[in-house]
Amino acid sequence: METTKFEIRGPAFATCNCAWGCPCQFNALPTTGRCEALWAMRIDKGNFNGVRLDGLVWGTLFSWPGAVHEGNGKVQLFLEEQASADQRQALETIGAGQVSAEGTFFQIFAAMAPHLQPSVTAAIDFDCDIEAGKAHLKVRDLVEAEGTPIRNKITGIESRSRVVLPGGFEYREAEYISGDTLTLDKAAIKLDLKESHAHVYYAAWDNDGVIAV
């Protein structure tokens, strides 16, 4: 059977409930023993088996009772309300890990978060400036999040961190920042995070995982 092909590229923003730096990024356990997270991306260039995805913003809310690798998590997908039925189906299929190789970003998170909550389509305001270490996300009635550079608690000076993971399944390089995240009425997963870990990066994936950029 012919494999459904996809490729998506664009800036991405993620927050979680870990302290700055997120030990999970280095195969350690989460700061609080459990994981809560937000992930969002603007697809500057994307295609799913002939369906164009350019310009769409989408993302997910996640929650696990323990570490991600222990599974039993919940996930709620969101995407822009102007997405067509074909585009929505494409993003839901990608997000569910159905067309990704084992051990890649979407396949891992789908396998570890089997409890699917209803997808949400809404107006989305998203900006992600990787070089500045800043991001903004507002999904109407669902979630609001801000990302800013980490600052020294004594001097107030920005403390910039660029992390390289040569074998990373989410990214090869990311700017680590500070995030604030608050979910709203339509969120099936509740997050209320202040000055927690966040990162921004240029995402590039296909069926086989991260694409070198």
From TrEMBL:
InterPro entries: DUF1326 (IPR009758), UCP033303 (IPR014581). This is DUF1326 domain-containing protein. It comes from Sinomicrobium weinanense.
